[in-house]
Design goal:
This protein is an all-alpha fold. The protein has one domain. It contains 21 helices and no strands. Helix 5 runs antiparallel to helix 13. 45% of the residues are buried.
Amino acid sequence: MSKALVLLRHLPERLRVRQATQFAFYLTLLITAAMLATRLLTLSELPSSIDWRLLLLLGSFMLISEGLKLAGFMDWIAGAMVRNARGIGGLYFGLLMSAFVLATLITNDAALFAVIPLTIAFAQRIRLNLRRLVIYEIIAVNLGSALTPWGNPQNLFIYRYYNLSPGMFFQQSYLFVLISLAALYILVAITLARGGRGKLALPSQEMSRPEASRGEITILVVLFLLLILSALHLIPALISAGLLVLYMGVKQRNSFRRVDWWLLGTFLLLFPTMGGLGGALARALGNEFGGPMSVYGAGVGISQVISNVPATMLLSHATTDWRSLFYGVNLGGLGTVVASFANLIGLSLYLKGVRDDNWRGFLGESLVWNVLLLAILGGIFTFLVG
């Protein structure tokens, strides 16, 4: 093996990487440095190429997600849905709907941090197809988060970049989510039919009724609603973000340490890098990528290689067809492990909680179900986009 390959293989250890988003930050930083060295970017262009308002909103949503998690809101939602489960089938659907709904209300990443640990805790007391269920939960948050502009970073970028109205956005997103939910339901039904259905005895009162701070949750929900109003261009982002930071600084300082700053830093660097590459792509294509199918196909395909957030930023400079881009990059979160940051986070949470499993087996099974669902939904949305 060559020295270059050895260095590449051990690069994460040498950089003291502890999480996937940290590695993504270093990689994006390297790309930025290369673009500066080749004059595709200049230092003077960097500040103006960053959408600071979008970055402020994204960081605020990440912060309030951590605050709601610490206050017990996500565990309360997940626990409430699971308490109403009837049998193993009900538990499966309860956990998946918890993931789906939380991703819609908060973000796809935050939903995983609530649902996957809860699922692993149940699996320690009840016989479940844990690996399959976690894979479905990761799929569920990727699909469910497509409903709202704040559900995932690519939607927030599309909503902001194309200056969309709430009506324009939800007119497309609700259809995407309804079709996706139906396909996910079919997958789970197939799994239950093959694995059998059984009676469910919830493991404990503590497990099914997690403690939650109602006072904190109430205040955080109000702050969250203010952020939504800012995302919808109804109030200034500085006001909602400022109130959030002030409250968290007084009541929940731990939330600041729990925010994935590596991920936020990656987004900051993606603005100039993807903007520069996207501008070059637009010039090469004559400022228009092509018809709807070209945009849609590129969104799905490029997401498999560089993740759907960078793919969104890249393609946005080459097309005005936000609808096809929306379908492509949201569906593009399915597939490879790098297609969405949520995929990497879900894998990390699973391996951390289930140490007797191996990542190769998880990735192999995940790829099978992701590709199957991608093929089914891809055919449906190809018809809609075309």
